């Protein structure tokens, strides 16, 4: 039963059966079979399944909360039997991409350190991909899950995106009434080391791929955000960066009936990535649990 619960816990943390299968080094069909067996054992449906996303049922949410505690207690007991009482302490080295680190992570760190005074944090704000094994990093926070099977990933936040521009830019340039109109506008672009840039739009069953160009490209979102606020162009960026500027009308949503993303499927999910071990160090687990607790209140901009 405990092994089934561990698979369930990983599915929730990863956000999908396929991502959980990579973390567990199992076939997706085996992961699905384990979840089916667990649901049969407890006579409860844990997930609302669809082709687009995996959502916990109300019973599944309750079971996850209790199961997480059960796994925590189980790991703690095993650690105690090995002479380690699992008190969160020590140096925690974290790498996070620059914009998310500045806006979402750093405001939370003082509260975490107050809660766990024996933990010390060394923080790197870096948009480059890091190697957790060679760069001496405990946790990396990135968009998307790792391809390295030696790493595990915990889902933190869905990376919703919105198309925006400043009121001054909108006033001075031609109207944007459909996605194709963007081809005649200056678009502020996230660097992905490709010659051409595309933004993707969907509305019900309609999907459009629009080639966009502009005079500013950046690996991080902050320079693009500042440029958009000054009226330099049209921006497609994460809602967690845009929220305060939409609320005070410094930026305005464009094409609100369309869902706009950088990728064909979605803009991706934000994960905490850490080295795969059967029993994560208490200070690593504590920090990731803290982030999940704090970030779950971050909802999409309406």
Draw up the topology in text.
Layout: H1 2-14, H2 17-24, H3 28-42, E1 47-49, E2 54-56, H4 58-81, E3 90-96, H5 98-105, H6 109-115, E4 119-125, E5 139-143, E6 151-158, E7 161-165, H7 167-172, E8 187-190, E9 197-203, E10 206-212, E11 217-218, H8 222-229, E12 234-238, H9 239-247, E13 252-253, E14 259-261, E15 269-275, H10 282-295
Parallel strand pairs: 3-4, 3-5, 8-11, 8-12
Antiparallel strand pairs: 1-2, 5-15, 6-15, 7-12, 7-13, 9-10, 9-14
Helix pairs in contact: 1-2, 1-3, 1-4, 2-3
Give a verbal description of the structure.
This protein has 302 residues and is α/β, with parallel strands linked by helices. It has 3 domains: 2-86, Winged helix-like DNA-binding domain superfamily/Winged helix DNA-binding domain (Arc Repressor Mutant, subunit A), CATH 1.10.10; 88-158 and 268-302, Periplasmic binding protein-like II (D-Maltodextrin-Binding Protein, domain 2, 3-Layer(aba) Sandwich); 161-261, D-Maltodextrin-Binding Protein, domain 2 (3-Layer(aba) Sandwich). It is 37% helix and 25% strand. It has 10 helices and 15 strands. Strands 4-3-5-15-6 form a 5-stranded mixed beta sheet. Strands 11-8-12-7-13 form a 5-stranded mixed beta sheet. A hairpin with a 4-residue loop joins strand 1 and strand 2. It is globular, with a radius of gyration of 21 Å. It starts with a helix and ends in a 7-residue tail after the last helix.
Fraction in beta strands? 15-25%
Mean pLDDT value: 85
What is the CATH domain class of the largest domain? Alpha Beta
Strands side by side in the biggest sheet: 4-3-5-15-6
CATH topology of the largest domain: D-Maltodextrin-Binding Protein, domain 2
The CATH architecture of the largest domain can be given as 3-Layer(aba) Sandwich
Computed Rg = 21 Å
Q: Please provide the count of β strands.
A: 15
| Structure class | alpha/beta
Summarize the helix and strand pattern as letters.
HHHEEHEHHEEEEHEEEEHEHEEEH
Summed up, the helix count is: 10
Let me know the largest β-sheet.
5 strands, mixed
End-to-end separation in angstroms reads 41 Å
State the share of residues found in helices, binned by percent: 25-40%
GO molecular function: DNA binding; DNA-binding transcription factor activity
Domain HTH lysR-type: 1-57
InterPro entries: LysR-type_TF_proteobact-type, LysR_HTH_N, LysR_subst-bd, WH-like_DNA-bd_sf, WH_DNA-bd_sf
Family: Belongs to the LysR transcriptional regulatory family.
């Amino acid at each position: 039963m405990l092994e089934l619960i561990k698979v369930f816990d990983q599915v929730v943390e990863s956000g999908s059966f396929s991502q959980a299968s990579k973390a567990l080094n199992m076939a997706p069909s085996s992961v699905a079979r384990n979840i089916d067996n667990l649901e049969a054992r407890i006579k409860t449906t844990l997930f609302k399944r669809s082709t687009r996303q995996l959502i916990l049922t109300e019973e599944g949410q309750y079971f996850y909360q209790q199961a997480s505690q059960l796994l925590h207690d189980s790991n703690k007991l095993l650690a105690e039997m090995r002479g380690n009482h699992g008190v969160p302490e020590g140096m925690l080295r974290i790498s996070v991409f620059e914009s998310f680190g500045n806006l979402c992570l750093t405001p939370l760190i003082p509260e975490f350190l107050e809660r766990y005074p024996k933990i010390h944090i060394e923080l790197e704000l870096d948009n480059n991909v890091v190697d957790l094994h060679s760069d001496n990093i405990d946790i990396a926070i990135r968009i998307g899950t790792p391809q390295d099977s030696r790493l595990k990933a915990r889902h933190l936040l869905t990376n919703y995106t919105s198309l925006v521009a400043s009121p001054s830019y909108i006033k001075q340039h031609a109207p944007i009434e459909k996605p194709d109109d963007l081809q005649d506008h200056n678009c502020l672009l996230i660097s992905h080391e490709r010659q051409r840039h595309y933004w993707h739009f969907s509305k019900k069953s309609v999907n459009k791929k629009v080639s966009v160009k502009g005079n500013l490209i950046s690996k991080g979102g902050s320079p693009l955000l500042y440029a958009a606020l000054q009226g330099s162009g049209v921006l497609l960026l994460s809602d967690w960066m845009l929220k305060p500027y939409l609320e005070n009308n410094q930026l305005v949503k464009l094409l609100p009936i369309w869902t706009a993303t950088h990728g064909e499927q979605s803009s991706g999910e934000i994960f905490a990535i850490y080295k795969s071990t059967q029993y994560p160090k208490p200070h690593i687990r504590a920090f990731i649990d803290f982030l999940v607790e704090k970030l779950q209140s971050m909802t999409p901009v309406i």
